[in-house]
Every structure is written in C-alpha cells, then in structure tokens.
Input
Amino acid sequence: MNPPLSWLAWFAISIPVATLSILAIWAFLHVNYRWESDLKIPRMRKNTDTLTKTHYFVLFISLMTIALWCMEKSMEGWVGDMGIIAIIPLLAFFGTGILSKVRRIVNMNWTDESRRTSIPSIGRSFSSLWVVSHLEKLPSRQVCLMI
Output
C-alpha cells in the first residue's frame, strides 16, 4: 500500500472485522448445532503446578523473540530479516533438548515454520548480514578451505 497504514488505522479496521467475524461464526454454530439437553461441561481443575526453570526459559526465549521482532527495523543491518529472529526459538528449544523427541518434530506444524523462516526471507537476511561482507574480503583460497 502506498502510503502504508498506521497501526491505529490497521487496528481501527481489523478489530471490528475480527469481532464481527467471531460473532457471526458463533451465531452460525449456535443456530446449526443445538446443545444436547444432558450436556454437562466439567469444571477445570485449578492449576497448582509451580513454574520450573524450563518454564522460565521458554518464557524468556519467547519474550526475547517478540522483543527482537519489535526492534527488528532498528537492527536490520545486524540481524537481517525477521526469518533469522524466528530461528532463535527453534535453536533454543531443540538445541537444549526441551523439544527433542522425534515425534514432536514430525508433528510440528512445518507449514507455519516454513512461512516464518521462508527461503526468500533467509536469503535476504543472509545477504544483509555484516558477516557476509567480512567473508567476501577473505581470499578465495581460504573460503574454499572453509567449505
């Protein structure tokens, strides 16, 4: 769009549209699918589990990733693109073993992951990293030995 929408204009449009969409879907489901007369929804038990170090680590990595996404434009020369930032949780969670089972990798929603860390995004971010400019200055012989 030229000029791009501001956050206020974006929220002024998206919040009412999203709210009306949710209400319309709820009404559609409510009209087309009747409640059973003997339906009982059990109460959820209160969560009494305490947070462990793993929970705090996941919270920290998640908040750090969100903060980096918010600051991405000011760090674009150093970080590259948002796709590089999206790789941080993958490396942190799989690298530390929090997500280590093969089953979790297979069941992971790779469509979303590939969208977040898409090839064009990674290519753009890699080419804009300062490391690449330093690697270009190395003699070609040393680069061939590194590969």
